[in-house]
Design brief:
Shape: globular
CATH architecture of the largest domain: 3-Layer(aba) Sandwich
Helix content: 25-40%
Number of domains: 3
Order of helices and strands: EHEEHEHEEHEHEHEHEHHEHEEHEHH
Number of strands: 14
CATH class of the largest domain: Alpha Beta
Strand order of the largest sheet: 2-3-1-4-5-6
Length: 396
């Protein structure tokens, strides 16, 4: 409940051939028996995820992957899954045996990783049994760090952590509320409690916004849309910002005076995890849709569908009302995303609270490359309610 969400952690992925000790390394880094270790090549099949803390970086997600030299039809599928991990990787560790030169498998992988502008660390494992670590042959071709370790004895693991700290991306994190509020401001959060809300809890975007408001030394009032009028009447002055669940846009917008800034949790995430400008451009494509057009609806998590589910019921209903006819839909969830995007006239994506920024940007860039407009839930809902311009004013 109190853990940092996976999507907000630095993603560190471990790559290498079968049996070089990738799983042993993840166990050594976490100091736990997280990954299954065996002398049998190909023990790791699907990616294994482990959340941990590496100070001073903070929360990270370590990903163990299948061998890049796997064989057979199933092996090819495993390799494909391994390469898909790169779409969410912030830092790549390539593991090899200490006494072996970088080969064609590693060189191919390095080329793919460099093309994605992902920082790399070479980890020469098994230093306890191979004392003469081979590193000179990689220079001057490669400039990234090389660390010799023994995942079995722990030798070099501290140095590896230090290298991870030094090599990790130093991008300035985009704050959810950054530039929107300042110390002492009052923010009203409108959080409907409907059948889709988790019992006894709030949904993740709401929790993250609450935390970010506290980090900005601001105040907040949290209420349901049915109590919004009463909540506003108790304030001595109008709030500096109102953030609502997108599905309550219509109700909330009618209650607020035009002078009160309004946006939604999903639009906040459009900026935080993706490209707000591109997603707003995607909303403009709605007016060009025609009956029979094919729409891709993508969600970052899998959940039990309610009778009035946002992705499978409400969004199709809103779109078809705008279009004046039936549309064709494909739904994907979790890590799944269509290979061929060219058949779609629009991609509608969730707020992406379960994805990290790199993965969401990868999806947006794929849509741009395919020349397919992409929009997220909140931006779309504001557009179909005719209030998109108002909900973007706080960001101007």
């Amino acid at each position: 409940m109190n853990q940092t969400p996976r999507g907000n952690r630095l993603h560190i992925a471990i790559f290498g051939r079968r049996n070089v000790g990738k799983s042993s390394l993840i166990n050594a880094l976490t100091n736990q028996d997280i990954a299954l270790v065996s002398d049998v090549a190909g023990t790791t099949t699907d990616p294994v995820y482990k959340a941990m803390e590496i100070l001073p970086i903070g929360p990270v997600l370590i990903i163990d992957t299948a061998g890049i030299d796997d064989v057979g039809t199933i092996g090819a599928l495993r390799i494909q899954k391994t390469k898909e991990v790169l779409n969410k990787t912030d830092l790549a560790l390539i593991v090899t045996d200490s006494g072996i030169n970088i080969g064609d498998y590693e060189k191919e992988l390095i080329k793919i990783i460099e093309d994605k502008n992902i920082p790399i660390i070479i980890v020469k494992n098994k230093s306890d049994v191979i004392k003469n670590t081979v590193i000179d042959s990689m220079k001057p071709a490669y400039t990234f760090p090389v660390v010799s370790v023994s995942a079995k004895t722990g030798e070099g693991i501290h140095q590896l952590k230090e290298t991870i700290i030094a090599t990790a991306p130093k991008e300035i994190e985009i704050s959810l509320m950054g530039g929107l509020i300042k110390k002492g401001d009052v923010v009203v959060l409108v959080t409907p409690i409907d059948s889709a809300a988790p019992k006894g809890r709030m949904i993740l975007p709401q929790v993250q916004v609450i935390r970010d408001i506290l980090d900005h030394d601001a105040f907040m009032v949290v209420c349901k849309e049915t109590e919004l009028v009463d909540a506003l009447s108790r304030l001595k002055q109008p709030p500096n910002l109102v953030v609502t669940d997108s599905q309550a846009f219509e109700t909330v917008e009618k209650i607020l005076s035009k002078e009160v800034p309004l946006t939604s949790f999903s639009i906040l995430f459009a900026r935080y995890k993706g490209d707000l400008t591109e997603l707003v451009e995607g909303a403009k494509a709605i007016e060009n849709l025609k009956p029979g057009d094919h729409i891709l609806i993508a969600e970052g998590c899998t959940h039990h569908r309610q009778d009035d589910d946002i992705g499978t019921v409400k969004i199709p209903r809103w779109l078809e009302k705008q279009v004046g006819g039936k549309l064709e839909y494909t739904w994907v969830a979790g890590t799944a995303f269509e290979e061929d995007l060219t058949k779609y006239k629009l991609i509608v994506h969730c707020g992406s609270c379960m994805h990290n920024r790199r993965e969401m940007m990868h999806r947006i860039n794929r849509a741009k490359s395919a020349k397919v407009p992409i929009v997220n839930y909140g931006v779309l809902i504001a557009e179909v309610n005719g209030i998109l311009d108002r909900t973007l004013e706080p960001f101007m």
